Fold this sequence. Notes:
This protein has two helices and 14 strands, in the order ββααββββββββββββ. By secondary structure, it is of the alpha+beta class. Strands 3, 5, 8, 11, 12, 13 and 14 form a seven-stranded antiparallel beta sheet that branches. Strands 4, 6, 7, 9 and 10 form a five-stranded antiparallel beta sheet that branches. Strands 1-2 form a two-stranded antiparallel sheet. The chain is elongated. The chain has two domains: 21-88; 99-184, Immunoglobulin-like, CATH 2.60.40. It has helices spanning 23-40, 50-88; strands at 2-7, 10-15, 95-99, 102-104, 109-112, 121-127, 133-139, 146-148, 161-171, 174-180, 182-193, 196-201, 206-208, 214-216. The model is unreliable at 1-25 and 76-81 (pLDDT under 50).
Amino acid sequence: MTSIDTVGTRPAIQTAQAAPRPVINSDFETFLKMLTTQLKNQDPLNPIESTDFAVQLATFSSVEQQVMTNDLLSGLSGQMGQMGMAQLASWVGMEARAPMPAQFDGFPVRVYPTVSPTADAARIVIRNAQGTVVESLPLSLTQDMFEWTGRDAAGQSFAPGLYSFEVENYIDGGLTGATTAEVYHRIEEARLEAGRTVLVMEGGASIDAEQVKALRN
């Protein structure tokens, strides 16, 4: 809300509320008030040394510069995050390949396992969204793509939902490690969370954008 006053023949515009002062300016005024109060209440027989004032002023100046630096870094970080979001906007609607669960809707799911080069045997373990193992199948050491039909030994289809695929590596019959297999999944949304860009996939799974290994339409 504004009001117009006339001084002579020149109009002047006054705002109903003054613009907020920067935090640094406000803190500097507080510092000056504290310094004035300190001068008024000092002991006349034992006045404060001028060097003490210089130290206080230098300390305040250092803090002021640090606050300004932190604000600048925060601003740059936010701009970089927004730039990343702008670039990733074109990813929405595409299929990303990454180590993550896959949505099963009754159709076969293509899985891209990575077997350890030191393993002499491997298995792929499929778990449902509750973490229950629904299948554990042998995997060829050179197999770079595995198609999961989503059906059990009796030919019955598993329930629709998210399923994870884990590759277990063995040496002389002993389990040496396990890794999450990669799948392709459609990107539905890109979010910025705590400075990280997170991709939300079809079915609800979410991954860090840095985990994406490939993209396709």
